Amino acid sequence: MFKKILIIYILLIYINNKNLLLFKNKTYYLIPFIIYNIINKNGIISKILYLFNYFLLLKIINNILFILYIIFFYFYRNKSIIFIFINYNYLYIIILILFLFIIIKFLFKNK
Predict the structure, then answer these.
(1) Which member of 3, 23, 32, 81 has the greatest number of CB atoms within 10 A?
(2) Which of 86, 92, 90, 57 has the alpha carbon at shortest distance from 73?
C-alpha cells in the first residue's frame, strides 16, 4: 500500500514537472507526510494524513478524467456530447464512492 502511494506521488511530481495536468498540484511538501505515515502507522495524525492522501488521489483522478473528457470531446465532437458528459460524471461518482468505502474501511479497521 505504501509503495503504491509513493509511486503515485512520484508520478504526480513527474507529471507536474511536465505540465501535463490542467490543475497543477504542488506535492513536494507531502513527501515528509508520507514518510511519517510509513513510520507511525497508528494514531490520529496518521489517519488524518491517510484521509488527505485519499482526497489527493481523488483530485488526481478527477484531473485525469477531465483530460480524458476533453480528448473524447475533441475526437467525438460531431457525435452526442451529452453521452460522453454523462459517462464522465458517472465515472467520477463511481470512483468517489469507491474511495469513500476505502476511507470508511480504513477508519473502522481498528475497531
Answers:
(1) 81
(2) 86
C-alpha cell at 100: 469513500
Distance of CA 105 to the CA centre of its chain: 17
Sign of the CA dihedral running 53, 54, 57, 63:
negative
b/e per residue, 5-15, with b = 16+ CB within 10 A? beebbeebbeb
Three-state SS at 43: coil
Over residues 54-109, the pLDDT tens digits come to 666 666 766 676 666 666 666 665 555 444 444 555 555 666 667 667 767 776 77
What does the alpha-carbon distance between residue 88 and residue 94 come to, in Å, rounded to a whole number?
A: 10
pLDDT at 13 over 60: no
Residue whose C-alpha cell reads 507511525 in the numeric block: 40
- Torsion angles phi and psi, residue 7, rounded to 5: -65, -40
DSSP, collapsed to helix, strand or coil, labels residue 76 as coil
CA 27, CA 55: separation in Å to the nearest integer? Answer: 13
